[in-house]
Design the sequence.
């Protein structure tokens, strides 16, 4: 599938070789052989090092020999083409600088027409990159004609690629050429293939940004309106995003007439995908249209989205509740939230769909800072409490993970009574991922609830996780202990957790015994030399006689791990003999790890 | 790794902990179509007399009235609402199905727009979001359409209508137009396999009866496939659409138009790259073979296309590709075979030496196919040198004894086919390997020199070389 290189190349290469003594070592044929190696992986490697090849050839031969070869061999595996497209975006210096950058256009043009989306996108990205390196003249002579060719290509791929190139050349060309570019973009917006219309719709906002305001009003608005009422919902939903960008460009007085009718229609589109998009972009939209339109239009639209018949849409809207409320105009913020938003939020708390509830739970706590202490206690607290009791663990988790917002406003004590049962239940959830998630919030909770509350209510949970039947939980529990000690200090550790951890060393289950070792690994550094030497080390030594080999080699690993915490005397007189004994163990793994520890601790 | 089995304590079981997690049984899900804000007040329909109870002259008028009544769409997620009316509509639809099947002279010109309207009101809707984000049609139960009790009858009615002897496409084409077809095609994404099955029949009938819509339908299917391959990788009805295309391709006139060839190369071949290939591979392979039976000259681009997209990491797909290739080789013309044999057998040689034994086995099965064997025999001077290295190496190295046995048979077959060449290859095997190693070393040296050069230059002219 690789084109043969013509016989004319060899003499040309040798003829030019004389100019630079370095180059004579690298006749192009040898290099090109590398680029068309039969093995795809080797070909790919060579393409990834294309800059090295170009460097060996020098700028002139890169332009006259390498690039034409690359342009002709565009038919290859997509992976190779992707690498090529990427390389060419960084090739300007290798072809002789901005003066010659247009030499890179032919291969990139071909790459911009291939079927595979990732290749095409990369080619467009590289073209956009090198467009900035073109002089205004080169842009008109070389770059813009390429865009035009792509825009009028037969197959949809080239037209799709063209959509991404208009905005980079538009600002730097003459007004006649500008008019042509606008015309081409218009044509693509009403292309026969939905793929092209989607590409155009997704670039509409970007293109609008580089256009003069008069053309935004005359051209872009009509394109936006047309795309937003396309027969395919996949096109309409892309127009929503463009609408947001366009709204930021227009003066306030034009918004109502030019974009609002279309956006209102999108918020009530019959396809849930379009409504979802509106919900998803709601905060951007809000910022773009300003406070007046927000009050009159967006508030009712947002209420509808929160009540949408599709859960997907409600969840997307629920995600935006906090941001939307935050960005409401200050003078009417509280009234709007209390009379319009909060009633919808209350309904969502008991939504039938767990994704909706969980989306809400991830932001609802943020409302307390906006509404202040009294409103929070009166209106939000009942909702938090309801969500803390939700049947879906995700919802409870999201509430717990955002406790810090409430803590600032009303203090966590208000919640602690309900918090505890929720935490206990999550701590014992049947799904280990849920247990894992709650463990991760423990240090944060401990900090907010204080050491007393923790010792009384939560400590036993933390210890229970150490004997969980899932390894990931035991591991997280170990790490959790370390973070707790960082918070509460070594003395607390010695009094509350170290005895319990060390007690497990006598457990009949070898996995529990190993957990002791893992805890020691995690705790020795935060607990410091004294506790480690006095309390932990003797236990570790004792375990070196365990019957289970897994425990014994973990002893070796632990000694290696805690070695740096110990003083050198202890290492020499106590640790060394134990490791030496383990190094002559009958189990090969125990031997291996003991020897490793000896060498790492330099005890040999 | 040491194991716990060396310890006597009986509490230490193999994993030390009992397994608590029990997988919950999956429940069947059903979902209603996304009828945006259709809910509201209860629907009231006034019962009408049965069609068979009125005179023949009155029937067309009553038929229209019943069609209009059936435009009312009910909410099936609410299992308690409108029970009586739902039942009434169901029985009316049943009556309409029977009526269009047996009656004569019912199909007045006024009936066409009403039929199409009733069908449109009922079937055209935005499909609901899929319940699971990553819906895997092989693993997950499909979400079934809740309104199926009505929907099924509407489809049934529409098909009988299209198949009715009185049906006149020349009148219907005013109503069954491009927009109608476009909406119909979108429904093929339905998760409910029952609905897709009906849609298949409907689209097939429309393609058959409306000549003016054929090119449009093909183009839109093109767009659906291209979007599926290059944008979303998600569309539930690919297999059904391919099945229809299979019969469409069958009817293509010769010589094939450029449009059709383009469809083969630019749409059908890339469809092989999709992750969910196994769900529609049989239908896809059928379409490909149909094309090749129409025009054998397409063999080369097709095989080159498959080789280009050959799976690199998915052995399951590789087996499917090999199966499809065998189907193609079954119908290949010897002149076409010669054009493609080199790249083809380079790939087969790679498959034969795949460490995945199913891939190796599937490839080696080619040697059980008499027609393929005859082609290989005719061209053994080209194929044997390509295959020899792999076969020779596997016969010594492959982990799976069944594969080694198969390879021995293949080597034996080659030996019988062309013993001179076989002996020659055996004797040069070692020196060839050495030559390859030497070449490999030269490559490494070349790159090392090139990299030294790069380093030297970048030191000389700081900043010019992009990193």
Sequence:
């Amino acid at each position: 599938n690789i084109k043969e290189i013509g016989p004319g190349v060899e003499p040309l290469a040798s003829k030019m070789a004389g100019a630079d003594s370095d180059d004579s070592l690298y006749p192009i044929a040898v290099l090109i052989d590398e680029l068309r190696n039969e093995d795809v992986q080797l070909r790919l490697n060579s393409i990834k090092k294309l800059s090295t090849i170009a460097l060996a050839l020098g700028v002139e031969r890169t332009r006259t020999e390498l690039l034409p070869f690359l342009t002709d061999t565009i038919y290859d595996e997509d992976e190779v083409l992707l690498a090529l497209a990427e390389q060419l975006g960084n090739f300007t210096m290798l072809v002789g600088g901005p003066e010659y950058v247009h030499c890179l256009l032919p291969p990139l043009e071909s790459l911009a027409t291939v079927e595979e989306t990732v290749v095409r996108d990369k080619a467009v990205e590289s073209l956009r990159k090198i467009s900035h390196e073109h002089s205004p003249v080169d842009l008109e002579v070389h770059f813009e004609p390429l865009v035009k060719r792509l825009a009028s290509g037969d197959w949809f791929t080239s037209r799709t690629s063209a959509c991404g190139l208009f905005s980079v050349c538009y600002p730097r060309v003459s007004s006649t050429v500008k008019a042509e570019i606008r015309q081409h973009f218009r044509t693509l917006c009403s292309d026969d293939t939905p793929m092209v219309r989607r590409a155009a719709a997704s670039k509409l906002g970007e293109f609008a940004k580089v256009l003069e305001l008069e053309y935004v009003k005359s051209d872009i608005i009509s394109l936006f309106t047309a795309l937003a009422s396309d027969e395919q919902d996949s096109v309409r939903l892309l127009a929503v995003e463009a609408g947001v960008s366009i709204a930021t460009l227009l003066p306030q007085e034009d918004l109502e007439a030019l974009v609002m009718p279309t956006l209102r229609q999108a918020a009530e589109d019959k396809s849930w995908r379009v409504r979802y998009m509106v919900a998803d972009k709601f905060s951007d939209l809000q910022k773009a249209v300003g406070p007046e339109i927000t009050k009159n239009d967006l508030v009712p639209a947002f209420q509808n989205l929160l009540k949408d018949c599709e859960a997907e849409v409600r969840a997307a809207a629920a995600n935006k509740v906090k941001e939307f409320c935050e960005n409401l105009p200050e003078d009417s913020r509280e009234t709007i939230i209390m009379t319009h938003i909060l009633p919808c939020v209350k309904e969502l708390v008991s939504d039938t769909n767990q994704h909706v509830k969980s989306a809400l739970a991830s932001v609802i706590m943020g409302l307390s800072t906006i509404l202040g202490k009294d409103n929070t206690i009166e209106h939000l607290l009942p909702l938090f409490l309801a969500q803390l009791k939700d049947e879906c663990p995700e919802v409870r988790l999201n509430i717990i993970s955002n406790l810090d917002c409430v803590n600032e406003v009303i203090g966590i004590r208000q919640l602690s009574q309900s918090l505890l049962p929720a935490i206990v239940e999550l701590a014992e959830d049947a799904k280990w991922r849920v247990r894992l998630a709650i463990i991760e919030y423990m240090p944060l909770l401990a900090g907010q609830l204080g050491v007393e509350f923790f010792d009384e209510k939560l400590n036993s949970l933390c210890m229970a996780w150490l004997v969980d039947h899932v390894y990931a939980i035991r591991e997280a529990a170990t790490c959790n202990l370390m973070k707790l000690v960082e918070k509460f200090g070594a003395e607390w550790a010695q009094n509350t957790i170290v005895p319990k951890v060390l007690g497990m060393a006598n457990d009949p289950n070898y996995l529990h015994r190993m957990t002791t070792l893992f805890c020691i690994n995690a705790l020795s550094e935060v607990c410091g030399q004294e506790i480690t030497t006095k309390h932990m080390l003797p236990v570790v030594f004792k375990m070196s006689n365990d019957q289970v080999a897994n425990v014994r080699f973990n002893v070796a690993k632990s000694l290696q791990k805690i070695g740096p915490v110990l003083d050198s005397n202890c290492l020499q007189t106590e640790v060394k003999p134990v490791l030496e004994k383990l190094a002559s163990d009958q189990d090969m793994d125990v031997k291996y790890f003991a020897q490793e520890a000896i060498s790492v601790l330099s005890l040999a | 790794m040491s194991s716990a089995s060396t310890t006597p304590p009986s509490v230490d079981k193999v994993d030390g902990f009992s397994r608590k997690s029990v997988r919950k049984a999956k429940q069947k899900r059903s979902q209603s179509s996304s009828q945006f804000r259709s809910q509201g007040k209860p629907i009231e329909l006034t019962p009408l007399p049965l069609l068979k109870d009125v005179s023949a002259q009155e029937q067309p008028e009553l038929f229209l009235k019943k069609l209009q009544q059936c435009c009312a769409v009910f909410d099936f997620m609410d299992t308690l609402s409108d029970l009586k009316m739902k039942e009434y509509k169901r029985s009316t639809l049943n009556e309409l199905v029977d009526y269009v099947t047996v009656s004569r002279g019912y199909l007045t010109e006024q009936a066409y727009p009403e039929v199409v309207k009733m069908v449109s009101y009922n079937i055209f809707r935005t499909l609901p979001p899929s319940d699971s984000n990553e819906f895997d049609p092989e693993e997950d139960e499909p979400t079934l359409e809740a309104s199926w009790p009505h929907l099924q009858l509407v489809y049934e009615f529409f098909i009988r209508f299209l198949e009715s002897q009185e049906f006149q496409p020349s009148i219907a084409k005013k109503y069954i137009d491009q927009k109608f077809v476009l909406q119909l095609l979108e429904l093929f994404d339905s998760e409910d396999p029952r609905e897709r099955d009906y849609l298949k029949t409907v689209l097939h009938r429309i393609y058959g009866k409306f000549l003016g819509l054929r090119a449009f339908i093909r183009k839109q299917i093109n767009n659906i496939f291209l979007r599926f391959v290059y944008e979303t990788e998600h569309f539930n009805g690919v297999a059904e659409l391919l099945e229809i295309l299979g019969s469409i391709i069958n009817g293509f006139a010769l010589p094939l138009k450029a449009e059709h060839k383009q469809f083969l190369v630019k749409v059908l071949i890339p469809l092989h790259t999709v992750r969910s290939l196994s769900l529609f591979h049989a239908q896809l392979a059928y379409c490909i073979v149909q094309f090749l039976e129409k025009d054998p000259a397409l063999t080369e681009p097709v095989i080159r296309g498959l080789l280009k997209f050959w799976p690199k990491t998915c052995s399951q797909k590789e087996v499917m590709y090999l199966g499809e290739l065998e189907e193609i080789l079954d119908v290949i013309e010897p002149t076409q075979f010669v054009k493609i044999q080199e790249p083809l057998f380079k790939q087969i040689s790679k498959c034969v030496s795949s460490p995945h034994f199913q891939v190796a086995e599937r490839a080696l099965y080619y040697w059980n196919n008499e027609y393929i064997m005859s082609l290989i025999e005719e061209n053994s001077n080209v194929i044997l040198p390509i295959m020899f290295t792999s076969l020779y190496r596997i016969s010594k190295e492959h982990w799976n004894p069944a594969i080694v046995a198969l390879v021995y048979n293949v080597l034996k077959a080659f030996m019988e086919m062309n013993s001179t060449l076989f002996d020659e290859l055996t004797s040069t095997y070692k020196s060839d390997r050495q030559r390859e190693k030497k070449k490999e070393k030269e490559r490494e040296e070349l790159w090392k020199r090139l990299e030294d050069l790069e380093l030297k230059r970048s030191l000389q002219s700081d900043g010019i070389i992009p990193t």
